[in-house]
Design a protein that fits this description.
This protein has 265 residues and is an alpha/beta fold. The chain has one domain: 3-Layer(aba) Sandwich (Rossmann fold), CATH 3.40.50.300. The chain has nine helices and twelve strands. The chain has a six-stranded mixed β-sheet with strand order 6-9-10-3-11-12, with helices on both faces. It has a four-stranded antiparallel β-sheet with strand order 2-1-4-5. The protein has a two-stranded antiparallel sheet with strand order 7-8. The termini are far apart. The structure holds adenosine-5'-diphosphate and magnesium ion. The site of magnesium ion has 4 residues, from helix 1.
């Protein structure tokens, strides 16, 4: 269980202190799938960075299973079971995808297992397993590789910051299934996803709406989701912001309705 108690995060702009996060408190209980949503610039990614330890709060405390982790480093928090997939992942020149998955897992990962993690995020494993994690990868490919590393790690709390960003519709459908499976097999762990996608909001246990650095509202999905439908915080998978329906590519599925990989891997 993760608890944020009265977290504030200020930055200095010139001589002025600006409150990016303002007195935010919430709990992510075990075995829950929680979605944070809200307008751009509201402070969602900052909250994810505060949880991962990339930023330190100006005031307030964070607890993981009752232990105060406010002063713990990123590495300590990762060891304690917090994993984090960034909105904009970083590249690791000289490291292959397989190495990265093994590093993330912190244990021996067979090539077959690594391929499975990649397939789950819609990547043809044989094309990617020995690719270097460098500038030749697109933003969407990098994003999917990073999500695969979180899957490989399989920790207590997995934080995903806008996993849909930069990902094509085909892979997104695949990804939704990954999250649905994660939700169904959640055990002594929890998942926190920052997202605007209706399909992700629909599978949340709890929804937290963050705006202007504060919690606007939070509660069980049934309570919060109806108020979000039709807003920019709940974007339909195939409907762009203009509200016009986008053309929906037909996704090939197997007999169980699961998307089948694009290429013959
Ligand atoms: N370290 C920082 N220094 C200055 N401004 C920041 C810093 N971190 C975040 N911000 C600002 O705080 C606001 C919230 O950012 P962010 O958490 O990325 O929002 P969201 O993810 O909800 O779109 C933005 O206006 C952003 O520019
Ligand atoms: Mg963000």
């Amino acid at each position: 269980m993760l608890e944020l108690k009265n977290i504030s995060f200020d930055v200095l702009e010139g001589h002025q202190e600006i409150g990016i996060i303002r007195d935010v408190s919430f709990t992510i209980p075990d075995n829950k799938f929680v979605v944070i949503t809200g307008p751009n610039g509201g402070g969602k990614s900052t909250l994810a960075r505060l949880i991962a330890g990339i930023e330190k709060p100006t005031s307030g405390s964070l607890f993981l299973d009752g232990e105060d982790i406010t002063d713990k480093s990123i590495t300590d928090r990762a060891r304690m079971g917090i994993s984090y997939a960034m909105q904009q992942p970083v590249r690791f020149k000289g490291i292959e995808v397989l190495d990265l998955l093994r590093l993330a897992a912190g244990k021996r990962v067979s090539v077959a297992d690594a391929c499975q993690y990649l397939s789950r995020v819609g990547l043809c494993a044989k094309d990617y397993i020995n690719r270097e994690v460098n500038a030749s990868l697109s933003g969407g490919e990098l994003k999917r590789i990073e999500i695969a590393t979180v899957l490989a790690r399989g920790t207590k709390l997995s934080v995903f910051d806008e996993p849909e960003a930069g990902i094509d519709l085909w892979s997104f459908q695949n990804l939704i299934q990954v999250f649905e499976q994660m939700r169904d097999s959640i055990k002594d762990s929890s998942i926190l996803i920052i997202s605007h996608q209706e399909r992700i909001l629909e599978i949340a246990d709890d929804i937290i709406v963050v705006a202007d650095g504060m919690i606007d509202r939070m509660g069980p999905r049934e309570e919060i989701l109806p108020s979000l439908i039709g807003t920019a915080s709940a974007v339909g998978t195939c409907v762009p912001f203009s509200g016009k329906p986008a053309s929906v590519p037909k996704i090939p599925t197997d007999e169980n309705g699961n998307p089948i990989p694009k290429k013959n891997c």
